[in-house]
Amino acid sequence: MENGKYSDKVALVTGAANGIGAAIARRLADGGAQVVVADFVAERGEAVAEDIGGVFVPCDVRIPSDSRMAAQTAVARFGGLDIAVLNAGVVTGGDGFDADRYRRVVATNLDGVVYGIEAVLPALRARGGGSIVAMASLAGLMPVPFDPVYGATKAAVVNYVRSYAPLVAGEGIRLNALCPGFAETPIIDGFRGVIHDLGMPILEVSDVVDAFEVVLHSTGIGECWQLQVGVPAEPVAFGAPRSAGG
């Protein structure tokens, strides 16, 4: 990796206490960025922040004021914000439908992105632009019968990014999504057997971080980049609906 690649950048990463979020925070810090580590798991989040020379902010992405506080901390501690990575996410877990689990997944995976975008926009605008990368999933592009609620939230993130990105592009703000397959993190512990039975290879976290950097440095807006084992990350080509007379 090029030293100093992010030396003039300030980044905010949600869900950064472990897994993909922590790895992205480390990669940005290794490149010289000042990083705000945002997560509701304080002990692990504080450890990551200390290790990378960043700052930890307690953040439950289901609460709009928590996301605003995280963005405001970036400005107060480091003078601004250039990169926002909206990574926090959970799977449903358990058998059958449960309303509380449903609300938790929707509030974390979808509301967390919606609230996160609104929270970081003022700081990005003050900077004259910047980049937002929302972590969606390959599960948002294909059926996932073993966790349909998770799949629905990630599909919603995909369309929200595609729909919202043109609204802020004129301000120099690039909004895109990354849609990786399942990666080697604790989030998949409850359904590793299902993934194996489906023949889905599991990504290394480092591959997801590499793909994140590709998305971060791309010039597109409203793109949703898919990533699978053995296949380079690339934007999904969405077809337009047929017209009424077509």
Q: Which blocks of ≥5 consecutive residues have pLDDT under 50?
A: none
CATH superfamily: NAD(P)-binding Rossmann-like Domain
Radius of gyration, in Å, reads 17 Å
Task: Report the span from N to C terminus.
Answer: 49 Å
CATH topology, by name, is: Rossmann fold
Which key features would you list for this structure?
246 residues, alpha/beta, eight-stranded mixed sheet, 17% strand
List the helices and strands and how they pair.
Blueprint: E1 10-14, H1 19-30, E2 34-39, H2 42-52, E3 55-58, H3 64-78, E4 83-86, H4 99-126, E5 130-135, H5 148-169, E6 173-180, H6 192-197, H7 205-217, E7 224-228, E8 231-235
Helix pairs in contact: 1-7, 3-4, 4-5
Structural account:
- By secondary structure, the chain is α/β, with parallel strands linked by helices.
- It has a single domain (10-235), classed as NAD(P)-binding Rossmann-like Domain (Rossmann fold), CATH 3.40.50.
- It has seven helices and eight strands, in the order βαβαβαβαβαβααββ.
- The chain has helices at 19-30, 42-52, 64-78, 99-126, 148-169, 192-197, 205-217; strands spanning 10-14, 34-39, 55-58, 83-86, 130-135, 173-180, 224-228, 231-235.
- The protein has an eight-stranded mixed β-sheet with strand order 3-2-1-4-5-6-7-8, with helices on both faces.
- Helix 3 runs parallel beside helix 4.
Give the structure's gist in a few sentences.
With 246 residues, this protein is α/β, with parallel strands linked by helices. It has helices spanning 19-30, 42-52, 64-78, 99-126, 148-169, 192-197, 205-217, and strands at 10-14, 34-39, 55-58, 83-86, 130-135, 173-180, 224-228, 231-235.
